[in-house]
Amino acid sequence: MQHVMFFLFAIITLGAAIMVVTTRNLLRSALWLILVFFGIAGIFVLLNAEFLAVVQILVYVGAIATLIIFAVMLTRQVMDPKQPRFNDQARVVAGFATLLFVVLAVIVTRVAWPVAIGAAPVDAIQQLGMDFVGPYAVPFEVASVLLVVAMIGAIIIAREHE
Amino acid sequence: MTFPTLNLPVISPQIVLVVAALVILIADLVIVQKRILGWISLVAALGALATVFTYRPASPAFQNMALADGLGLFTTAAVLIAAALALLLSVERVADFTRHAGAYYALILLATAGMTALTIASDFMTIFVAIEILSLALYVLSGFNRRDARSSEAALKYFLLGAFASGFLLYGIALIYGATGTTNLAAIAQGIAPLSVSLPFAPLLPLGVGLLLVGLGFKVALVPFHMWTPDVYQGAPTPVTAFMSVGTKTASFAALIRVLAALGSHDRPWLLALAGLAVLTMTLGNLAALRQTSLKRMLAYSSIAHAGYIVTGLAAGNPRGAEGALYYLLAYTFMNLGAFAVLLAVQRREENDVSVERLHGLAARQPVLAVLMALFMFSLAGIPPLAGFFAKLYVFSGAVEAGLAWLAIVGVINSAIGAYYYLRVTVAMFMSEPAADAAEAPKPGWPVMATIAIAALATLLLGIWQFPWMQSIIQAVSTLALR
Q1: Domain presence at residue B319
Q2: Quick one: closest CA in A to B103, which residue?
Q3: What is the pLDDT of residues B408-435, one digit of tens each?
Q4: Which residues of B touch A139 (CB under 8 A)?
Q5: B337-381, pLDDT tens digit by residue?
Q6: What does the angle CA B439 – CA B443 – CA B447 come to, to the nearest 5 degrees?
Q7: Which domain holds residue B356?
Q8: Domain range for residue A44?
Q9: ipTM of the complex
Q10: pTM
């Protein structure tokens, strides 16, 4: 049953991902991307990571995909389907992308990944919360500085032309 | 439950910088005389520097997330010096390119906070967040000149490629985590040998380090990840270029040295990759710099070449090479920032770049400026007894000590190529007639001249009076576990 569910989610994710890059209409690409995010959330659930699944939907579907759709709708030129799809560097890029894919595929399939034995902790979310204020307090707090930087930057970029 | 013990003095420079940035943002609303904000930010950078000097190297803090050891403190001090000089440089000319001086100073301070956090980061989590802080701040800063289309282009280019490079960095970190089971550098250093043997087919670690090198190589502008450098250095406002060219390098190289030291007990196939990157970076940087007429582009390619020299020290993989790299970073901070400061002094208010022709006959018009520029050029070219010479000497001797004599020879040949374009600038200043359209630039005020004078003095002092610097560098490297 788990395997069937996994293949279902994998097909949804990959199929939608292919649609994202092949669709000519950027808005449709963005909508397909939402389906990709849902598929990944499903895989998180299968891995007993319910919290990550919820965060995946809340953050990626709720915030990031919405943001992308807004960005697409606010910029007119990128919506033109008559824009050329490839430029003269497409072949070089395709070569490097294939190379990277082959290397990563070999790694993922050949490595004997160290797998943790035992059931997933029941109170995973509580543990996660404790870690944020415990061992990972510094990266957690520093990430808030990152958000301040992003906010100042966004305001500066979006301000009126001088 | 137990709360972790807090060791706040470890991150006191960062606290000072972030608080000052927030104070400036608020003060921006009430203070009309924006120059005051510049002085506040300068005081904050110097205050953060003071906390570094009052602090002694200590044991890991925040459960191994940060480590203010000799390496961290030395590079933090170098970044803060760069920030202070860049702020001093900005006070006078920031009004030339923006009305939003408050946000500008705040972002410089936040970028500095990110850089200093990177120098003491001892966990991949902290490293990644710190890199993102400094990158985001610099993306915005390079686009700060809204009157110049090239500035916006620089910001966009830097942002798109930078986001792409962050992806590589993150992938590398993920693979290293997969190979070692931890993101913590101290734990990796302890546990790397047994774990890497237990994997039957274990290319994970080299591949992870390789992707990490792509990500960090982008930040320090190694060939072939350097494409953005000339455009961004040229398009960004000159004080920003001066700051980012030295600060980012120091912080990213500090992180790279720390990561490589943690991975030191392995058989280190990546040292060869580093040597290859060094050859490519030195050669392409110098050859491309030969053909530039824009001085900012020339210094951009020169900064690529210098990144190559520094990598030579890391490729050696021994303490001598790391010491050379650290000395190089400090020397480079002063000489490169000084050179950009001179460019700012001769550029007109509405300009954002200077061509070589503009410097023709500078010695007749502004002799002091010409002499100091010549000093920076000589130091960048590596002429004794200036800091640039000893920097090259130390990294190359590190390479020779590691049995990489060929790498040192390539480096020396490259220094000779580099000398040509640095000396060309000097010749232009002293022996050429001024161009017909050499309209006077505004006379540089005392903050710009003070920046140039401090940088020149330090370039000279680092060369002829090395004891205190070398002592702290040797102490910094000795605590790293380099073979």
Answers
A1: yes
A2: A152
A3: 999 999 999 999 999 999 998 998 877 6
A4: 65, 123, 125-126, 129
A5: 999 999 999 888 888 888 888 888 888 888 999 999 999 999 999
A6: 145
A7: 266-483
A8: 2-84+122-160
A9: 0.87
A10: 0.92
